[in-house]
Amino acid sequence: MKTIRIILLVLFFSFVLLPCRPAYSLSGYIETNAIYFTHKEDIFESRNRLLLEEREDSKDWFTFYFSGRMDVLLSNRDEENNEIIGKIDDAYINFYLAKGEVKIGYSKVFWGKLDQLAPTDIVNPLDISKLFLEAERKEAKLAVPLLMVSPYFGKQSRLDLILVPFFEEGTYDELNEKSSPFNIVQFPPPLEKLPVEEELPSKNVRNMEYGGRFSSTFREIDWSIYYFRGFCDFPMYKLTYRFNPILNEFIPNTIKAEYFKYNMLGYDFELVRGKWGIRGEGAFFSDQGFQKKGILDYAKGNYFIGGFGLDRSFGDNYLNLSVLYGKIFVDDDIEEKKDEITLLGNIERKFSYETKVIKLFSIYNTMSNSIFLKGTFSIMLLESLWVDLSVGIFEGKDKDTLSKFQDSDFFFIKCKYNF
Fold it and tell me: Is residue 56's pLDDT more than 50?
């Protein structure tokens, strides 16, 4: 019903409010991927996508945008190997007023200054598989229903107030998540046979997500402060028990999956010194959930993550380096280390009149000694046709998030045609 209502709203604005447009010429892209997972029992996949989009700007006071996509999965997974889904990728209406803006739709919000791991960029849930397969974080974002009101304060300051009327969860993979090589949810035997009861937040006023960002410029420094109250994208798991009168003891019953509601306070800044771009960002989260160590249960605590980044272009070369420090405040023993330092690096080289690109990307957790490396070679065969060849390697033996993907190494070929 939600999708039908959104489609009807889009059709209304397309053909009623924009009747003066002489013709509609849709744009978008067609994409086909071939993926081989080396450690997942020789899994081969073909992921295919058709995305169509339409945009209209009317008289400097109104912007309409809509994009919808169809994704097709063909694979040799043991179970749930094929799937076809159709979704709204992004749809919104933006009204421009004299002293502000109003945005309404099923859309995406981009917060923060750091690139692939941005602590404050939490309004939209993520598709984790896209974080590793695609080059940019924005490709992993999933749209949410939202209303955003943005009053201006002079020419250099604005306040973005956001309301998300109901919760949308994240996913490890939109295409058959349960059998996906990127699904890291595993329970030890014999608990893997127990049913999982997922408690999604109900759709009511109490569970609405909301927040805001105030951004401004002081001299040459762009800075922002943030607040957001919402639910974690992924649940925490807890084993529940029932009394067995025959054995006269409590035995495992179900696994409960619960989404924690948190408060986030954050900041970011960005400035340019010479040829270097300097960025900083951090966020403090209260009432976060963490899996306990050695037992299927969770603990509640607080969490801070923040860091800095540098980037610079050297002719046809681009360099981006970031460092993030994370600190977990919880009394219980948990699976993750309570102090973490993560290093990120991205190197890009363009040549042959920017028709060929080499990219190297890495994430390294210094405390857990886990790493993700990805190399990509891109070549433009035609004016609108690009082919990417990628290799992704995970390494780690600890309980941190990155180590849990240690069996998800992949070879990746992508062909993308824009029209």
Answer: yes
Higher-confidence residue of 279 and 13: namely 279
Q: Is it the case that residue 5 has pLDDT exceeding 50?
A: no
Instruction: Indicate the domain borders of the chain.
Output: 2-418
Q: How far apart are CA 341 and CA 364, in angstroms?
A: 8
Q: Assign residue 176 a region: left if phi > 0, alpha if psi is -120 to 50, beta otherwise?
A: left
Q: Where are the beta strands (DSSP E) in 98-168?
A: 100-107, 144-153, 157-164
Q: Dihedrals φ, ψ of 387, to 5°?
A: -125, 130
With 0-12 / 13-18 / 19 or more C-beta atoms within 10 angstroms meaning exposed / middle / buried, residue 408 is buried
Neighbours of 160 (CB within 10 A): 20
**Mean of pLDDT over the chain:** 91
d(C-alpha 307, C-alpha 345), whole Å: 13
Which residues are CB-neighbours of 126 under 8 A, at least 6 positions away? 140, 141, 142, 170, 171, 233
Give residue-wise pLDDT tens across range 135-191.
889 999 999 999 999 999 998 999 999 999 999 999 999 999 999 999 999 898 889
The number of beta carbons lying within 10 Å of the beta carbon of residue 8 is 9
Architecture of domain 2-418: Beta Barrel (2.40)
Give the mean model confidence (pLDDT) for residues 307-333: 95
- Extract the tokens encoding 134: 């695609």
Neighbours of 21 (CB within 10 A): 12
Give the closest residue to 130 by CA, choosing from 163, 89, 165: 89
**pLDDT tens-place string over residues 95-104:** 999 999 999 9
CB 23 within 8 A of CB 14: no
Mapped onto helix, strand or coil, the DSSP state of residue 403 is helix
Res. 396 pLDDT band, cuts 50 70 90 = very high
Q: What is the pTM of this model?
A: 0.88
Order of strands across the sheet with 236-244? Answer: 196-199, 249-258, 236-244
Which tokens hold the place of 167? 């919760």
Q: How many whole angstroms separate alpha carbon 88 and alpha carbon 312?
A: 35
